[in-house]
Input
Amino acid sequence: MTESKLTKNCSTCGAVLKLSPENIVITCEYCGETYDVNFTKVAGHKMIPTKSQKEVRANVVEFLKKNRTDINSISIDEVKANYIPYWIVPFKSHTEYYGVERGSVTRYRTKTRTVTDSNGNTKTETYQEAYQVTVWRDRSGNFSRNGNQNVMARKHTAFYGFSEFNSTLFLENVVDFDFNIVKDANSEFINAEVEPHEAQMEAYGDIENKNRAMAASRLHKLVRCDSEITVQNPLYVHAPLWSVRYRLNDKVYKVSVAGDSGKVVKGEVPITMKQRIINYALGIVLILVSAILGTVGINLSGVEDTAAIGIILIILGIIGIGCSVLPIRKAFKMQLEKSSMKEIKKDRRVSLKAAKKALRGGK
Ligand SMILES: [Zn+2]
Output
């Protein structure tokens, strides 16, 4: 590329746009217009709406309170949104597969037995006994799967909590992109490093793998699997992940918050000296109690009448020793990692259901 091809003026506001290997698709920092690598406008740029900075901050405080952090002693240094680029690739696919299925059939064999009738006479009679035989059958099938495949538009991201954020991201919930929102929140805006065509190819591979896995799950052994996949033009979307930094006793801790739900996806929580001592004591007590249970159990198990109780006590003792690892490990840690992932996943399921319902209703 020559120098002239690397920069160009925004056709909407005249500002200078600069291409680089990390900025293949660029959004004008002044007016929010988006261009691809050939400086052609990218239509239909979308974003995921975010909770406000105030709400994010309040949720982090709530999260820390829940995890017993002394919130009166902390200072929140940074609450910043990072707008991460994605391509949503709409696709249609049809899969034909062939393989071997494991089944069983019922067979019968003739057996004889001795029976006594009401008069006390015994005689021998024959009867049919059922038994199961494993059989292998050829099976072919097909299914269609349409939808959207999300592709991250950066090759590497080092954001704290990113994989948690990514795993629950619900990209269907988009609105038109508005650069003012990004600017107002003093956010970090990230351009795409992956072109639309590259995103389509990556989506293609992901869809094919998923189809293969789905076919394989229906059979004992998958022999052949062919997917016919068509990918459409992708939609450019920015999703907000908030990074929050707070300080306690001169140490900095990180918390990441998903912008759409406002919930913590991952957060560092300090453990106080008091909590560490409690955990340590708890671990020691657990070990002692387990040892006593085990010893009593061994003695009881030697006597026939109490053998069952003895074995139960031995098992309890072993479980107790195993469980003591948890508080002991906590006692030697300075901080913990917590999240509200369960809540987020639950919310996602609810909104997915609602979206599906709306789709059905709309038809
Ligand atoms: Zn512009």
Observations:
- The two ends are 49 Å apart (CA to CA).
